[in-house]
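Possible race condition, two jobs.
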Amino acid sequence: MFIPRTLLRISIGAALVIASLSPQVTAQAPAKPQPDEDLRREIRELKQGQEAIQKELQEIKNLLRDREAAKPVRPETISIASRPFRGTNGARIVMVEFSDYQCPFCGRFYRETLPLLDKEYIQAGKIKYVFNNLPLDDLHPAAFKAAEAAECAGEQGRFWDLHGRFFGNQNLIANGDMSSHAKAVGLDVAQFDKCVQSGKTEAAVRAGVQQATSLGIQSTPSFVIGLVNDKNPNDGNVKILGVINGAYPYPVFKQAIDKALASL
């Protein structure tokens, strides 16, 4: 079939015009969020972050509250009745040491700091120095038996003799031969051995451990600075003024004791 050239041009042109007028499907980039939408999104994210932080803070507060509730309340007074002491019985300021015969820091306090305190405060009648037991069995296996032995020496009126012997020879305590130490300080060894073997002083040693636990004391040496009740000075109880945990240098003890004396 023959199509005139002029008609063909017209047909092609018409087709092009129609095609140009037909809707076209093309890929378009997603519309950008409006500024208001960005702001709302940021606000939501901030709120979510704040809620998460508040929840975490509340959990921490609850944990701290539970720990505080579980912590034992330290008593206001402690008893020093029946405990060996040095100094004037009528002194109103008392320093109670909780100690372990195998503890090297306790030995250092005995050798270096106690003589200075003894000269300035104990012998001068300004304070009463009291000793109590806190043997740390896990660290020092022979400390509990040494404490029992010292208490047995006390039955013969020689507590301080064996006490000094132990702190002066800490490296010899580990073998458990308490009799040789008793003999060295002039004790009746047969009576001493009978006391140690009977275990009769175990309760006194455990009482010291329990008292330290009630005070929250877990390390040696530790010291309680206390005040004797002036209304009833013979009741054996002292008011707790402060606690020193550790074998600090002499000036630390001097400051604490002077402060206590100044309060009288």
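Job #2 (started ~2 s after job #1):
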Amino acid sequence: MSTAEFSLATDRSIEWKSAAPYVLTGLAFLLLFWTPLEMLGRDWWNDPDAGHGLLLAPVAVYLAWKRGLIATTTPRPKLGLSLLAAAVLLRWLSGVAVEWFTMRVSMLAALVALAICWYGIRQVVHWWLPLVLLLLSIPLPAVVLGSIATPLQFKASQMGAALLEWRHVEVFLAGNVIHLPGRSLFVTEACSGLRSLAALLSLGVLIGGLWLKLPISRLLLVLLTIPVAMLLNGIRVFLTGFLVYYVDPALGEGFMHVTEGWIIFVVAFAILGAFAWLLDRAERIWRPA
């Protein structure tokens, strides 16, 4: 073997030795968390309430890659391994209890623990936005979703009924059922606005993390998504009732109903963008560059 070939073989051996811990850790991670990861992917693909994860997860991975590693890292192996042990224990306990949300959270906790072990706490702080997006991509338990969706259903029904009365439409509201002359509208869980609220919350976090600098500005933007989503969903219920009463009962379902939802979401996104722009201008005035 020549000197050049020996040097090349040595370099490859060094590269493998340096990469081996990461490769083995990745394989161990997949082995341990494959079941919750697979079920999470299925929920993203099949569950409309979790579909935003199909967008959030790739965006989070891209942002983590884009931000990269900070110049000076201080690995914290003891702290990282302790947190990793806790995450593995949580994975085992949630597996015994068949509790999917906790199982998926343990997967994210294991990623954070590995980042602390290899790169330190500062790196985790540097990656705060991708980690928050990953957390938001995990669907909430059905019990929690139901407890949130029911009040949203009633609130959307009340707002829609109030707007219909304002337009001189005879309305009788019974819970989440709006009775019109010769027709009744049932505000289902799918029409509660929960999906749009989850999507707008995620967009608020993403926009705030990318374009705003101050934590208070980011918090205000995220908080704004809640009343915007509730208000526009009430307007959607009103528009549905208005079209059903004055135009055609068939407009209360099918393609037209779905189109209304998309239009309302685009309007909500525009409002969110405008408010983010105002907050950015306020930051520039408060803290000029």
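Residues 3-46 form the longest helix (44 residues).
Logs attached separately.
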